[in-house]
């Protein structure tokens, strides 16, 4: 069985769940609208440009989790899934996931977006294995801090390598599907890197390296 690894945002999803969660919090009125919207957009632009300071972003994005109890957050997330995420789950992406499942491959989502936001999304795809940025918790409440290596750029490689050791798996015959040049460290590591609706930098790199390129979008 091979390992089929999927980036989440702008790969399996036709959008960015982290960014949309921020927008959703603005719509709920639980964060300062103008300031939060501006910062959310700034960080998203920096991510796309490859200049994101991941720790600065996480200090920003995890604070709303720390400000509210888990029951309230879960209630909001259920609405978020229905209103923001279900409409951007791409049928072609789900079909590819299902093909790998039918082939007996092990499915794994690896994402920089935090586990609170992404765990229900992974479940919606029927994927049990998730490596995500881990928000710290104490006494069943988020602290606003990060509990582990952020699952971003080289951090994805470190987190995956540890997961492979812990599970006794390896990357032989493995696939990794991603849209972003931020994932080049991991794309370079697998036998079958696939650029999905790639950004310009990744598209150029994929063409130079002869990597497969696909699209999930109409």
Q: What can you see in these coordinates?
A:
It is a single chain. A six-stranded parallel sheet has the order 3-2-1-6-7-8. A two-stranded antiparallel sheet has the order 4-5. 51% of the residues lie in helices and 18% in strands. 36% of the residues are buried. It is α/β, with parallel strands linked by helices. Helix 2 runs antiparallel to helix 3. Helix 11 links the parallel strand 7 and strand 8. The protein has a single domain, classed as Rossmann fold. The protein is built from eleven helices and eight strands. The mean pLDDT is 96.
Spans with pLDDT under 50 lasting ≥5 residues?
A: none
The N- and C-terminal alpha carbons lie at a distance of 31 Å
The top level CATH class name: Alpha Beta
Percent of residues in helices? 40-55%
Keyphrases for this structure?
Rossmann fold, six-stranded parallel β-sheet, globular, two-stranded antiparallel ribbon, 218 residues, 51% helix, 11 helices, alpha/beta
């Amino acid at each position: 069985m091979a390992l089929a690894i999927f980036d989440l945002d702008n790969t399996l999803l036709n959008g960015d769940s982290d960014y949309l969660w921020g927008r959703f919090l603005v719509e709920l009125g639980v964060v300062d609208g103008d300031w939060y919207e501006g910062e959310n957009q700034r960080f998203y632009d920096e991510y796309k440009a490859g200049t994101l300071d991941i720790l600065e972003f996480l200090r920003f994005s995890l604070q709303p989790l720390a400000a509210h109890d888990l029951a309230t957050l879960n209630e909001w997330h259920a609405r978020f899934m229905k209103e923001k995420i279900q409409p951007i789950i791409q049928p072609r992406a789900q079909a590819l996931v299902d093909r790998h499942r039918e082939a007996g491959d092990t499915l794994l989502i690896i994402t920089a977006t935090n586990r609170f936001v992404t765990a229900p999304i992974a479940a919606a795809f029927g994927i049990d294995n998730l490596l995500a940025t881990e928000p710290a918790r104490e006494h069943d409440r988020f602290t606003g801090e990060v509990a582990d290596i952020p699952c971003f750029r080289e951090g994805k490689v470190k987190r995956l390598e540890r997961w492979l050791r812990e599970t006794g798996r390896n990357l032989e015959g493995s696939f990794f599907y991603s849209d972003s040049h931020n994932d080049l460290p991991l794309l370079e590591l697998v036998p079958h890197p696939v650029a999905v609706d790639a950004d310009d930098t990744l598209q150029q790199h994929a063409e130079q390296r002869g990597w497969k390129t696909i699209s999930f979008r109409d």
